[in-house]
Sequence to fold (341 residues):
Amino acid sequence: MLNNILGWFSNDLAIDLGTANTLVYVKGKGIVCNEPSVVVMRRDNRKLIAVGAEAKKMLGKTPEGIIAMKPLKDGVIADFDAAEQMLKYFIKKVHNRKSFVSPRVVIGVPSSITQVEQRAVKDAAQASGAREVYLIVETMAAALGVGLPIGEPSGNMIVDIGGGTTDIAVISLDGVVYSRAVRVGGDKMDEAVMNYIKRKYNLMIGDKTAEDIKIEIGSAYKAGDGEKTMDIKGRDLISGIPKTVTIYESEIREALKGPVNIILDTVKVILENTPPELGADIVDRGIVLAGGGALLRGLDFLIRDATGLPVILAEDPLTAVVRGVGKVLDELDLLKRVAIN
Fold:
């Protein structure tokens, strides 16, 4: 009886708990929250200072007694306490601080998640006030989010490039036929940019600058529309004094080669291991790219060139996973078929 009463009040939530961003979808309302997965807390008593967009502004700028951190690393919880605080904050924010609401929550997780990591995600969500917690693999969610017919007996290939992981799967009949996840995503791309600039210019830049460079002039494929440039500021490693240098698109393409090639090689491994009948479907339907990393300019051309297959960039790739997890909320029989037991 109590569960029924709680059910009347509850607004069920779908969450894409990402390394870079956390998105929340509320049944009947759509996506209500899309904020960076960053938490700022006091070092001594771990009291929360800021979460999300406000916290991201403080990254790399905090004094000694305050830590700014990302609770998730490579798609899984790295700091349980911070992740729990972050989830609690987002759930409360979405429910306008109504603390008696205990929603049913569905969360998208990487396919490579271990039993222990699954437990950690469930525990964090329950500690944040969720009544029931279901987990769904992100590739499955992304495929649903971009509208692929996953219930049909045909091969659908999805490449979901997130902040911490790239998840690639071939899906048929509501199940994953073959999948592979690599811990390479947007964060590793940022890291590659930082290392390249440090090596080439003896210039130290922060995570945020590296991310801005990737978004502004990063690319995976040489297009014919001229060379973009960008002025960046950092600290000279020799003199220790801040300075500005101008960098070129071709340099950043070179810097990103490492992580981009790992993603490309994984796509090839998946194609080699896909049963021939499903492979034939992929030739017709192509490979669908989702996730924030799919926005890297020219990545679709690069994969098309390397595989000879059509490559489709999903509409609004950043929200594909959360839209898919949201779809599952509306169709409970589908949830039972695709949730991880």
User: Anything to note?
Assistant: The two ends are 25 Å apart (CA to CA).
